[in-house]
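Tokens as discussed.
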């Protein structure tokens, strides 16, 4: 019987939907680099460095986020995917593995927190556009109807609504992005809220 490889990733079966395993992208990966070299190469956009990072930290980050999400696997997966994106964008050289791991945990915790805030804004968004929101088990159906109403809007109108009520952007930020005055954005949001409410209630009343 062959002894198990001590460097094997025991939790490699845990995969994110749609996220390829970077650890498997090389048949003969190069030897693991010290953290200073590894993070410097990651900051420079080295693909093999990211393969090694995935091999070393994918499972650790998932287990950490599973604890943050109190065992909710889907929440942990979503937060992990966002964490990996943030690491790719913001990684810098670290001289200590301990400091690097602390930074990774901070990035992961913030990703999970932001995901929770967005979910809370989404539920508040549902309640805003329904006079009598259904009880919690039915909110998924209400959310589907509201999403259908959103998709019927013009892209620029949908961007304003989602930016304001799902992403938490201010009217000033929206006006700058849309090239409109703040007063024009407020007026359009008011019109869109009324339109969405009318369409939502009409769809909910349909047999």
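Sequence:
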């Amino acid at each position: 019987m062959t002894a198990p490889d001590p460097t094997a990733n025991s939790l490699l079966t845990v995969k994110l939907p749609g996220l390829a395993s970077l650890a498997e992208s090389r048949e003969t990966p190069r030897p693991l680099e010290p953290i200073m070299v590894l993070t410097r190469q990651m900051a420079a956009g080295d693909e093999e460095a990211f393969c090694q990072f995935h091999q070393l930290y994918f499972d650790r980050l998932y287990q950490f986020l599973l604890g943050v999400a109190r065992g909710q696997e889907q929440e942990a997966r979503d937060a992990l995917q966002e964490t990996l994106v943030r690491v790719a964008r913001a990684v810098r050289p670290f001289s200590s593995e301990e400091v690097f791991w602390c930074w990774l945990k901070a990035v992961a915790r913030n990703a999970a927190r932001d995901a929770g805030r967005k979910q809370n804004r989404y539920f508040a968004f549902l309640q805003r556009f329904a006079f009598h929101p259904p009880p919690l088990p039915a909110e998924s159906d209400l959310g589907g109807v509201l999403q259908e109403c959103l998709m019927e809007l013009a892209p620029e109108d949908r961007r304003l609504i989602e930016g304001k009520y799902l992403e938490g952007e201010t009217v000033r930020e929206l006006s700058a992005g849309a090239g409109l005055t703040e007063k024009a954005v407020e007026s359009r949001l008011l019109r869109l809220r009324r339109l969405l409410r009318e369409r939502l209630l009409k769809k909910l009343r349909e047999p």
